[in-house]
Write a structure and sequence with these properties.
Strand order of the largest sheet: 1-10-7-6-5-4-3-2
Structural class: alpha/beta
Number of helices: 12
Distance between the termini: 8 Å
Oligomer: single chain
Shape: globular
Radius of gyration: 18 Å
Strand content: 5-15%
Order of helices and strands: EHEHEHEHHEHEHHEEHHEHEH
Number of strands: 10
């Protein structure tokens, strides 16, 4: 089993590019390299340089490559959708210009990826991790979401050769087990794959190992997180929204939470996974001083258990 391991700016608290507390992007690149990573995701559009030559030079200075970009926004609203189309073109054009597509034996869908995440419904954000309280989309709204994901996926895949992958996310409208099942029913694999995230599966009340095994044939890309179970139980019982929970430390370095990564490693080895894994740990950017230590610890932990 040959894996490639990356990190992402969310480990430094970078989720909203308008947040005034974000660390400088130069620090994120520098610390990712210091921690031992060779690749990372773009993070939210506009955080890293958007001009490909400037970004390429900054990456080269830190011996890094980019493996994915992300659409992280309201994907249900028709009014909001033209902005998502424009952003998809911008991200994928940028990924294509970087010229970092990796083709090696054993990877069915190589990087780069466009990670597609619905997030922006305030009622869903407030009920993250609460499947029995979270309001569900109407059938009309769900169909609009599926149609929008299909259009974005076709732009990425057909126009730029960037593999689209849909990511169920805590606090989004694709979060819980029934919604994941509907997603794979409504979005064929030739349109988009899955990016399953161990931490978000756990947060939504699923067994990450069982979900990875069940949806294995649809998975093109993986995200690894770990969850502090005591904090998770507390924030769910208090009905905290997802990013408030992250600020409270619900996500922790790999190996220090409740997810069994030795069992995950055994599954990936059994399935002969050869693709990419990105380590993530959402946090409040005001706590970014702990990021270098945490992303280093997570990478070292994975290496210690055989990854």
């Amino acid at each position: 089993m040959r894996l490639s391991i990356a990190t992402a700016p969310c480990c430094w608290g970078v989720d909203d590019p308008k947040n005034p507390h974000l660390p400088p992007w130069q620090r994120v690149l520098r610390e990712a390299a210091l921690a031992g990573y060779k690749s990372l995701e773009l993070g939210p559009w506009g955080y890293l340089p958007t001009e490909a030559s400037a970004l390429s030079a900054a990456l080269a200075a830190n011996d890094l490559s980019i493996i994915a970009g992300t659409i992280f926004d309201d994907l249900v609203s028709d009014a909001h959708f033209p902005a998502m189309v424009e952003r998809t073109h911008n991200i994928c054009r940028n990924l294509q210009a970087l010229g970092q597509r990796e083709d090696r034996p054993g990877i069915s869908q190589p990087a780069p990826y466009l990670v597609i995440i619905d997030f922006g419904n305030p009622h869903r954000a407030a009920t993250a991790g609460q499947p029995h309280k979270a309001p569900r989309l109407s059938e009309t709204a769900w169909c609009a979401l599926m149609d929008h994901i299909t259009v974005l996926s076709e732009i990425a895949w057909q126009e730029y050769g960037v593999r689209p992958v849909v990511h169920p996310h805590a606090g989004g409208c694709i979060e819980f087990a029934d919604e994941l099942e509907k997603l794979v029913r409504d979005i064929p694999h030739h349109v988009a794959g899955l990016c399953l995230d161990t931490g978000h599966l756990y947060y939504a009340g699923m067994d990450p190992l069982a979900a990875l095994d069940h949806y294995w044939e649809r998975i093109d890309y993986l995200h690894f997180k770990d969850v502090n179970a005591a904090i998770w139980r507390e924030v769910v019982s208090q009905e905290q929204d997802f990013f408030s929970a992250c600020a409270m430390g619900v996500m922790c370095p790999l190996g220090r939470g409740d997810i069994d990564y030795q069992a995950v490693h055994a599954l990936l080895r059994k399935r002969r996974y050869q693709g990419w894994v990105t380590i993530e740990q959402e946090r409040d950017p005001r706590h970014a001083d702990g990021s270098l230590g945490d992303v280093t610890a997570s990478l070292q932990y994975l290496q210690s258990v055989g990854f």
